[in-house]
Input
Amino acid sequence: MDTHWAIRDLRCLELLYTIKRINRLQSIMPRKPASSLRLVEPVRTPRDAPSTTDQIVESITGAIVEQRLMPGTKLVEQQIADVFSVSRTVVRQALNQLARSRLVTLLPARGAFVATMSAEEARQVFELRRLVEGGMARELAARITDAQIAQLRAHLQDERDAVKRSDVTGRTRLLADFHVILARLLGNEVLAELIADLLSRSQLIALMYQSGHSAEHSQSEHIEIVQALEKRDGRAAAKLMEQHITSVERNLRLDPRSPDLAAVLRPKT
Output
């Protein structure tokens, strides 16, 4: 057997054992309320009007998505306050919310900046996600219920709708939520929080560099994962999850290459 794959399989077995231990421990520990997860937002009713803080958060997030605010850009509180006609206290609340999502970095005595992430850090995040989420999918396939499958189907429809209408912020959130939901279906809030944190670490790169085509591809891969879960095929679910995360990483183009000027500048026919 190839040494690399033998080591990899051993690590997966260790991970599955760890997940099972956490599940057993949680049965004797008080559960953390589901509302503590930051990544999955509560459903907003039509009567709920977005607060000024929410408006600032959505505006800055949109500017990052559309690359009007690039990594490292300083976010001056007073300028933002003037734009929205609010106090700097409200702006700080918005910046703190963005910092919790890792879209903004807050530096003492220097202020707020659009976050940056190195390619190496992103690779480490995806490597850990492959190990954790592959084992999670295998474990979930053995215990998932028909009602949970229906819940996942409804989420897939929300994803499909967001991708179809080119809702960049919405589709990014929903595509990420899919992975947290799988952990929560296991009843494992510790695992859900770990995955939510890993996702938030890569959220900036996904927002900025995931194209509509790659988002559509990710959504179709989610469908395949749910199909494997519905068949209770743990091996297929784990393999599809690992392939999906690898595909997401590849589509983010963490190794930008020098453009082919001839291809870039050639007049369109």
In short: Residues 50 and 122 are 32 Å apart (CA to CA). The first strand starts at residue 74 and ends at 75.
